[in-house]
Amino acid sequence: MHNAECSITTRSPEETAAVAESLGRQLQGGEVLALIGDLGAGKTCFVQGLAVGLEIPDEAYVRSPTFSLIEEYDGRLPVYHLDLYRLSEEDELEAIGWRDCLDGESVVAVEWADQLRGYLPNRYIEIRLSIRSPEERELKFVAYGDPPVWWEGWRTTLLRKD
Ligand SMILES: Nc1ncnc2c1ncn2[C@@H]1O[C@H](COP(=O)(O)OP(=O)(O)OP(=O)(O)O)[C@@H](O)[C@H]1O
Ligand SMILES: [Mg+2]
Prior knowledge:
By secondary structure, the chain is of the alpha/beta class. It has 5 helices and 7 strands, in the order E-H-E-H-E-E-H-H-E-E-E-H. It has one domain (5-161): Rossmann fold (3-Layer(aba) Sandwich).
């Protein structure tokens, strides 16, 4: 496996959230996480785990911003959570302030990031979730552009767990 990639199979929503939490703890701000996967694959579950790793208080319960498309949270870093399932035209990205999210300080987690096509920055982490059985999900991570400084260390720990 190329060192910009890694994957793991989880066997419960809790396990998916735990992997996401471990990733969330590494984040330093400016990372863009592009979540891709079918309905019910676990994208929101992943972002909920991420929220724990980013120390977003429980009161700010994280759900898919399906209608608003975007939600902002304050954890130990500023966080934008987008859900582009209902994005109908690219102009809407402008309206929700997509460019402003890429401020280099905030963490940006995007569900249905396949909708972004040409709008992703050069550096981002793709997280592809595939349904393997009712309780099993394969999570595949790919770092595009220069991987973040924490990437190699995190990837190594993750691979040891699988
Ligand atoms: N290993 C697993 N990891 C994550 N979720 C799992 C797993 N096994 C079962 N599930 C279930 O799959 C569902 C995942 O839902 P979730 O809302 O996170 O998906 P989603 O990808 O955000 O879907 P949507 O596109 O509708 O927003 C939950 O009902 C969860 O309990
Ligand atoms: Mg969702």
